[in-house]
Amino acid sequence: MDIPRLKHSMQCKIISNEALNGDVYKLVVESFGLASSALPGQFAMLKCGGAAYLRRPLSFCDVCERDGAATFLYRISGAGTKELSLRKAGEPLDIIGPLGNGFDIIRGRRAIVGGGIGLFPLLLLAKRLCGDGAAPDIYAGFRDAGAVVLENELKKYAADFTVVSDDGSTGVKALATEAFARALAGGARYDAVYACGPAPMLRALACICENEGIEARFSLEQRMGCGIGACLVCACAVKSDDGPDGESYARVCADGPVFSPRVLSFDNSGGRHG
Questions:
Q1: DSSP designation for 264
Q2: What is the pLDDT of residue 50?
Q3: In angstroms, what CA-CA distances link 54 with 19, 47, 125?
Q4: Cα(161)–Cα(154) distance, rounded to whole angstroms?
Q5: Residue 273, SS3 per DSSP
Q6: Is the preceding peptide bond at 98 cis, omega within 30 degrees of 0?
Q7: Domains and CATH numbers, the chain
Q8: For 131-184, how does the pLDDT look when each residue is reduced to its tens digit (9 = 90+)?
Q9: In what side-by-side order are the strands of the sheet with 56-59?
């Protein structure tokens, strides 16, 4: 197995680190290196605190090359991200990145489907797709109205924007995949679908895309240790003719985090990325 060399860490200055709603925070750092090189779907490993904390993988949510700013959204889900939420503007933050393989650009009419924190890496993608010539349709799913983030930002880059929620407190009561399926039933046609979200959402979306013959790219949410493919914490099952029972394993950090659903088995999923 080839193990990539660890990239050098960078000392970036925190521009802002503020709560958006509840336990979701928006972190903006100054780094011309990150802002000029990060691709949609890539991530970085952030040092949250002292030696007791492993770095946390966060997807790039947005970048501004002109200002040298890189934006990350994260949800407090443990001691490490809690420590990160306490960091203040002006403080240095140790970051390694960009890491992983981002979304490739597929031509034609495109849709973005995101659920919950899976929407975080999709804003930068939506901007790049607009720059490629055609704004995508965006289907955004949330737990409830209190969990809504990035709605206004995503709308700027959407040809058509659909928001749904589990309880119907914002948009209609539905899952993002259900809204997408209804659009297809109503005559919508897509050449490509991009998605990030929980495994059940991606599993359902993979079936829809296969049945409709739509090309797709999914960014997986997975726990990570090193971010470079050495520790194998983020290994996920993929289809393979060479492995037992037609399966082998890929490293989400190094081989992904973006995959075609055609190679995914969805049998070893879970965790968090971004």
A1: B
A2: 72
A3: 22, 7, 27
A4: 8
A5: coil
A6: yes
A7: 10-99 (2.40.30.10)
A8: 887 899 999 999 999 999 999 999 999 999 999 999 999 999 999 999 999 999
A9: 56-59, 43-46, 92-99, 10-21, 24-30, 69-75, 62-64
Which residue, among 42, 31, 34, 120, has the nearest Cα to 81 in the 3D structure? 120
> Which long-range contacts link 142-146 to residues 24+ away (Cβ below 8 Å)?
142/115, 142/116, 142/166, 142/170, 142/171, 143/116, 143/167, 144/169, 144/170, 145/169, 145/170, 146/21, 146/22
C-beta of residue 115 within 8 angstroms of C-beta of residue 198: yes
Q: What is the pTM of this model?
A: 0.91
Query: Is the sign of the CA dihedral 191, 70, 272, 145 positive or negative?
Result: negative
**Tell me: the pLDDT tens digits for 228-264?**
888 888 888 888 766 666 778 889 999 999 999 998 8
Query: How far apart are the C-alpha atoms of 166 and 162, rounded to whole Å?
Result: 14
Report the alpha-carbon distance of residue 197 to residue 177 in Å, rounded: 11
E strand spans, 110-207? 110-115, 137-142, 160-165, 172-173, 192-196
* CA 35, chain centre distance (Å): 17
User: Are 251 and 147 within 8 A, CB to CB?
Assistant: no
For residue 199, the one-letter residue type is: A
